[in-house]
């Protein structure tokens, strides 16, 4: 994919846009957030991260006529039955802030010894809304939850997600270090590798 191609990112999250734009730059794809098209998020009623990513991608592509990339990701804590899981961004309510969600998470883990957790990311690319062969990439990032927030980088649950082998929370990592290790970074590199082998429709 040597030429520049516009695509819509089915998210209004500035943090995700910045991360994915950097990671997908080698593919020639230029991402535009759905907010510049005035799009609202669709109802995410899938049972898995992959299903929700595809719902978002099809919605964005149908509304804009552009290829679409969507990410559905979240924090999974096995000791909490997989919560926050698919509800990670709205764990404490539809209008929840990251601080609200983090407070609920730490409260739910009060007295729980098993703090293992992992971030999971499902990324999908579609050429058009009715694309029958979406390209998926998934990845997980293992860590553990700590009570006290640390760091000022990142977003969401990053200040409470400790990566033991790095001795730091995700929010303490510089962006390039985070991208090298994170669920979204790994999934984006896998997606970029897959996209390099796909010719755009006008080149077929």
List the secondary-structure elements in sequence, H or E.
Answer: EHEHEHEEEEHH
Structural class assignment? alpha/beta
Question: Helix count, per DSSP?
Answer: 5
Bin the helical content: 25-40%
What is the subunit arrangement here?
single chain
Mean pLDDT: 91
Q: pLDDT below 50 for ≥5 consecutive residues: which ranges?
A: none
- For the biggest β-sheet, the strand order reads 2-1-3-4-5-6-7
Overall body shape:
globular
Give the termini distance in whole angstroms: 12 Å
Q: Specify Rg, calculated over alpha carbons.
A: 17 Å
Could you tell me the strand content as a percent range?
Answer: 15-25%
Brief write-up:
The chain has 204 residues and is an alpha/beta fold.
Please give a structural write-up.
- The chain has 204 residues and is α/β, with parallel strands linked by helices.
- The protein contains five helices and seven strands.
- The protein has a seven-stranded mixed sheet with strand order 2-1-3-4-5-6-7.
- Helix 1 (14-24) packs across helix 5 (183-195) and helix 4 packs across helix 5.
- The termini are close together.
- 40% of the residues are buried.
- The mean pLDDT is 91.
Write the layout of secondary structure elements.
Blueprint: E1 5-9, H1 14-24, E2 29-33, H2 49-64, E3 68-76, H3 98-108, E4 116-126, E5 135-145, E6 161-163, E7 168-169, H4 175-181, H5 183-195
Helix pairs in contact: 1-5, 4-5
Descriptors:
single chain; 204 residues; 7 strands; alpha/beta; seven-stranded mixed beta sheet
